[in-house]
Amino acid sequence: MAEVNLVEAVNMALARAMEEDDNVVVLGEDVGVNGGVFRATVGLLDRFGKERVMDTPLAESLIAGMSIGMAAMGLKPVAEIQFMGFIYPCVDQLVCHASRLRNRTRGRLGCPMVLRAPFGGGIHAPEHHSESTEAIFAHIPGLRVVIPSSPSRAYGLLLAAIRDPDPVIFLEPKRIYRLVRQEVPDDGTALPLDVCFTLREGTDLTLVTWGAMVHETLQAADALADQGISAEVIDVATVKPLDAESILISVEKTGRCVIVHEAARTAGMGAEIAARLCDEGLLSLMAPVKRVTGFDTVMPLPRSEHYYMPNVKRILKTCRELVDYA
Amino acid sequence: MAEVNLVEAVNMALARAMEEDDNVVVLGEDVGVNGGVFRATVGLLDRFGKERVMDTPLAESLIAGMSIGMAAMGLKPVAEIQFMGFIYPCVDQLVCHASRLRNRTRGRLGCPMVLRAPFGGGIHAPEHHSESTEAIFAHIPGLRVVIPSSPSRAYGLLLAAIRDPDPVIFLEPKRIYRLVRQEVPDDGTALPLDVCFTLREGTDLTLVTWGAMVHETLQAADALADQGISAEVIDVATVKPLDAESILISVEKTGRCVIVHEAARTAGMGAEIAARLCDEGLLSLMAPVKRVTGFDTVMPLPRSEHYYMPNVKRILKTCRELVDYA
Amino acid sequence: MTRIAEFAVEYIQFLDPAGKPTQDIPPHLAEAEAITPMYRLMALTRTFDAKAIALQRTGQLGTYASSLGQEAIGAAVGLAMRQDDVLVPSYREQAAQFARGVTLEELFLYWSGDERGSRYSGPQFDFPISIPIATQSCHAVGAAAAIKLRGEPRVVVEGCGDGATSKGDFYESLNLAGVWHLPVVFVVSNNQWAISVPRSRQSGAKTLAQKAFAGGFEGVQVDGNDPVAVRFAMDNALERARSGGGPTLVEAVTYRLQDHTTADDASRYRDAEEVETAKQSDPMIRTRRYLESLQAWGDEDEAALKEECGRRVQEAVEAYLATPPEPPEAMFDSLYAELPGALTGQRAEAIKENSDG
Amino acid sequence: MTRIAEFAVEYIQFLDPAGKPTQDIPPHLAEAEAITPMYRLMALTRTFDAKAIALQRTGQLGTYASSLGQEAIGAAVGLAMRQDDVLVPSYREQAAQFARGVTLEELFLYWSGDERGSRYSGPQFDFPISIPIATQSCHAVGAAAAIKLRGEPRVVVEGCGDGATSKGDFYESLNLAGVWHLPVVFVVSNNQWAISVPRSRQSGAKTLAQKAFAGGFEGVQVDGNDPVAVRFAMDNALERARSGGGPTLVEAVTYRLQDHTTADDASRYRDAEEVETAKQSDPMIRTRRYLESLQAWGDEDEAALKEECGRRVQEAVEAYLATPPEPPEAMFDSLYAELPGALTGQRAEAIKENSDG
Ligand SMILES: Cc1ncc(C[n+]2csc(CCOP(=O)(O)OP(=O)(O)O)c2C)c(N)n1
Ligand SMILES: Cc1ncc(C[n+]2csc(CCOP(=O)(O)OP(=O)(O)O)c2C)c(N)n1
Ligand SMILES: [Mg+2]
Ligand SMILES: [Mg+2]
User: C123 and C61, same structural domain?
Assistant: First the structure.
């Protein structure tokens, strides 16, 4: 079994899904002969032909909207938006149609589509190539928003997303596309959507995160362990619908929670998690719920983006604050 | 001094702003001879001419994008999006440009535009005419999001929004467009952006809300008073940037907080407010922070929309829960 | 300077406002058998329309968008399509929807604000009414791409208004249809108004048909109040699409005789005179006159048709009014194929909060 | 059927790839005085370009989009404009930006990922580079509307690529420009590729110039590697716009000789042969040959120009490399005209978190 990195795992899941279901098609800008600007769709054109691997014109609203049309007709389109910074023209089709088609027709028509987009900063890319706005999509009823943080979760979650009968926004943390390699059996096993993954058990503090920040968070947990602090690390993975239950149970045990995300703080997903804790978990809280996040600023261009990104140092500092909290 | 309702106050502010600054222009679908589908722009065409009151083609991305172009050239466009349900094609231009132009050019070009849109449910309108997705915009750094809840605040806040040198999303709660009349002096006095308004002082509980829900919330506060419970009512008004300070101070006093909004619960602005309380205000909390909101469902069509809308009964029930909290 | 590309827009009309042929009608469209079904459908739609407005005025229906004066387009389009073709409609295509098998009761339910009105018992793959202007164009080309991928002899027909032609989605879809050679027909009901914005302020293009050139295919303009012209253009366009010839744009020129919707008051922005003039071009008049000229229609037929339409509409109204609203949990039950665990609590909350207890 | 509208696209070329006139050049464009400034600007741009790629390869610049082979368009467009006209550029219009007075150092800063690279010391109302494809079209028509409102004799020039013509924003802007008769020129640099998608898969339209017909105005196609043709078309279009004649779309046919950006590897998707063929049409070659044929350019001029370009670029590189990065709080300081109170805490936090202490 070969070891694969995250983007290769995405590719593997796409190939698997296309292999097992003729209705699965891939579309987007440069997904064909170029294999995607990050190579996520590489090889698919040769293997499945240009009928099923479609380079579209440069038009994101169209990509979302035509996927809806395809999905309603029984295909399972997996569309790529080249970078999350170019996903905004899709918002209209996603809010007004993808998320509503089943409900609007009381189940007559479904919308089994996946919209994939690489997201997140830290790779010194041009403007608009470093966005993290998952919270916008998490606010929209009827959508699922899924974010893998490792090769195996990328494989299992993407398969689940493609098989799911409803629309899924699948956001891929491109900073860690090639960070680690893992043995991922290509056996078609999907992972459950709608549940968090506990990556590390702990008793003193719960760290909640997703996407690329999982890595900094795990590093922070290691460093905390060296200081004798036992941190539980939860990868939310599916930010919509949110499995608040798992987080509540963890914080019931630890009494402390730090949420880490790259996105801007205000009205980010961290707020929702904190709000759930502040409602259903208040009595277990031994310290304030803190968020280590991007600032409420435009993500700076590459020369200054490191000022914006949450890092291990910031996570650790916040954890210490909570542990030291009266 | 005439008494005006909320939509008339909007109209008054528009006329005032156009009167005092030649750079102010109004544009949108049906804003000219028709005076807007809700009559917010009525009379402006006659008074200021078709150069400054422009019916655009039916194209929302264009309306946002051309406003940016106008604003960069020194005009102060006030664009109307006919209903918030049709604002999504603007998201791209707002996220990628309006919110960034000043920052991107390090102050060389500004973007003094206002995008107005009626929003919210409860008026038995067709699909997409009852949306409340302020949280999406509140997540975007560089924007302001302002929501009036009375004729006088509509007048004062809209004037402030138009005079503001940065982009403002101005959301008008159409359910209360004609609910009450108030004496509003047309004296050009703006209200401050970025601060909450305390509409009612109280000691037992803080009710935080905005838009049309201010009215149900005030009714709930009345009913609570009858029960001997003193509720403070805060109208957030500017949901971005959020004046969390005022809310924190209030909850420090009351120890209890209920947030009321029409929008879907998950990742709504209520979450952000709860998160701030759970971080900076934890020690003052004598009970969980509760949200009375729309459900995480698509807003139902008119026959069932009342199932979705928060109402006085739900607010009261939640308030009682908190007051009775151990 | 070298001329490297040339384009032209043709205009098609067979029946003038008085129902007199302006040119030879192709035999298969000239006969009463071809015309009568369209006429009957137009009459049914008009009856439905009048009833819908009456219901709205008396608080028994929600906001309603009348298709008065535009019925020829829907009738011709709907009847030109095959059953397994796919209609992707806007909100003003009642006649086409009826032709497709959407029931009167379903459309009453829809306009009352009830999701069940879009759970068509008839055409299973027809799209529900799209309210956000032109967004449905993208669905149409997506559906057409699915059909093409599967090699099926089906065609997608998208309907929209003149205002819709200003939207990016409309154009992005034209462009895709052109470059992918998709089996789709775009039918633009140019009724001269987008609420209060007249056609002349909507686009500087002389015709809306020429928008097709931007997508690299043919556009044609027809008299949209002449069902024969619409049917002729549709037959051609559908045949072309079905046989792999790619997309066509059909601009059907008509006039919105009513307010934009029951929430609108068109007298604010347009002259009564213009409306009166437009009434002379009413598609029902010319169609009846033509049928009469064929000796294929008379007062008795008309009376019987009136009676039948009235009865069908009345039955549908009764069935609609007798349909109890859905329970509160309905807003959860079709949101996802299966309700996510995260929402079970809210579903219970909704039931509880909306119970009388 | 009646023909109700006709359209045609013309193609303009004055210099063939060898620099030989293919038709009479209008006198004011035929002379060396008209050509030399364009040639010099093209050379400067090409020198900048080569340096930018070298810097990127050695980790001293961020991702960079080369304009190799497309310099004639920018040079002709930029020099045709008046100072108080407004340029609304995409990311591949270096020559036009230089012509406008954007400095080499600013563009190096920009491509290094530094916001100060868009705080142009020169053209105060020119728009910064737009990365999201075609979004800038809307800004262009908005700016043009502002100019028209004020009755100023200024013109807005929007630049974009062939891929951009597929986007809704592009079309919505064309449509507005047409119906409002705006003083704007849309310049489409059709370099045959949108990353890996060839022009033929981008649109079924035979020319991109004909997209203008959807907006109701003229489109013209020019040889984009012929600076005289581009200049001629631009002079006409600018004059038309300035004198109230409304918009024009200029499709400039060229070829992207380099990878899409330094992050791309074009050999994955296009034949080396195609690129080699395209090199024969290099705009620099034909311009130089033509100047030589006028006896207006020789080896010495060329050597002096090379030296000058090299020196200017080197000076700019040094100034750029000597520019220290901004402090962390810069991300707050131009976000709003005045920092909202709600953000003062975060600003302090950012300074603290990014300090060494
Ligand atoms: C995207 C969008 N913007 C605005 C509206 C509000 N609106 C509803 S109908 C309409 C005019 C549509 O005109 P047209 O396309 O000509 O269709 P018609 O109503 O004339 O049939 C507008 C602006 C909408 N439904 N969708
Ligand atoms: C809206 C949007 N979608 C996708 C991208 C990613 N992208 C950058 S350049 C490009 C191709 C642009 O092609 P074209 O318009 O022909 O311009 P060129 O690069 O050839 O000059 C794409 C897809 C983007 N920048 N913006
Ligand atoms: Mg219309
Ligand atoms: Mg290109």
Answer: yes
The finding on whether D91 has its CB within 6 A of some atom of ligand 2 is no
What separation in Å is there between the alpha carbon of D91 and the centre of ligand 4? 11
Give the integer Cα–Cα distance in Å for A196 and A184.
20
Residues of C in contact with A166 (CB under 8 A): 336-337
Give the structural domain span for D201: 10-326
Average pLDDT over residues D6-20: 98
Partner D contacted by B244 (CB < 8 A): yes
DSSP string over A111-122: ---EEEEEE-S-
Hey, is the C-beta of B34 within 8 angstroms of any chain C C-beta?
yes
Look at residue C2 and tell me if it is in a domain. Answer: no
- Encoded amino acid at D267, one letter: S
Q: Among residues C240, C260, C286, C288, which one is catalytic?
A: C260
Is C344 found in the same domain as C261?
A: no
Q: Ligand 3 centroid to C265 CA: how many Å?
A: 15
The yes-or-no verdict on residue C108 having pLDDT over 60 is yes
Domain check: are C166 and C222 in the same one?
A: yes
- In this structure, are C259 and C343 located in the same domain? no
Chain C partners within 8 Å of A144 (Cβ): 340
Is the domain of D279 the same as that of D357?
no
Which atom of ligand 2 is nearest the CA belonging to D190?
A: 16
Give the CATH fold of the A3-183 domain: Rossmann fold (3.40.50)
H/E stretch holding C213 = helix C211-215
pLDDT at A312 > cutoff 60: yes
Task: Please indicate, yes or no, whether residues D39 and D148 belong to a single structural domain of this protein.
Answer: yes
Give me ligand 3 centre to Cα C256, in Å: 7
Q: Which residues contact D345 (CB under 8 A, 6 or more apart)?
A: none
Same domain, D246 and D345: no
- Judge: B166–D115 Cβ closer than 8 Å, yes or no: no
Residues 56-75 of B with CB under 8 A from A: 61
Number of domains in chain D: 2
Distance D192 CA to ligand 4 centre (A): 5
Of A68, A164, A242, the CB nearest to C138: A68
Examine residue A141 and say whether the peptide bond preceding it is cis (omega within 30 degrees of 0): no
Instruction: Answer yes or no: is C3 within a domain.
Output: no
Task: Kindly state if the Cβ of A82 falls inside 6 Å of ligand 2.
Answer: yes
Contact A219, A312 (CB under 8 A): yes
Decide: A58 and D202 in contact? Cβ < 8 Å. yes
Which pLDDT score, from 0 to 100, does residue D357 have? 55
Q: How is chain B split into domains, by residue range?
A: 3-183, 197-323
The whole-angstrom separation of Cα B151 and Cα B181 is 7
Kindly state the tokens that stand for C330.
């309905």
Same domain, D344 and D265: no
Third-level CATH fold of B197-323:
Rossmann fold (3.40.50)
- As for ligand 1, residues whose beta carbon falls within 6 Å of it are B 29, 58, 60, 82, 86; C 92, 131-133, 160-164, 189, 191, 193-195, 256, 260
Place of tokens 């500017």: B238
**pLDDT tens digits for range C206-248:** 999 999 999 999 999 999 999 999 999 999 999 999 999 999 9
D26 assigned to some structural domain: yes
- Closest-approaching ligand to the CA atom of A57: 2
**CA distance to partner chain B, nearest, from residue C166 (Å):** 6
Confidence of residue C1 (pLDDT cuts 50, 70, 90): confident
Calpha distance B131→A99 (Å, rounded):
14
Is D3 within a domain?
no
Compute the mean pLDDT over every residue in chain A, rounded to the nearest whole number. Answer: 97
Q: Which of B40, A88, B58 is nearest to C132 (CA)?
A: B58
Task: Decide if pLDDT at D198 tops 70.
Answer: yes
Read off the pLDDT of residues A212-243 as tens digits, 9 standing for 90 and up.
Answer: 999 999 999 999 999 999 999 999 999 999 99
pLDDT in tens, A13-51: 999 999 999 999 999 999 999 999 999 999 999 999 999
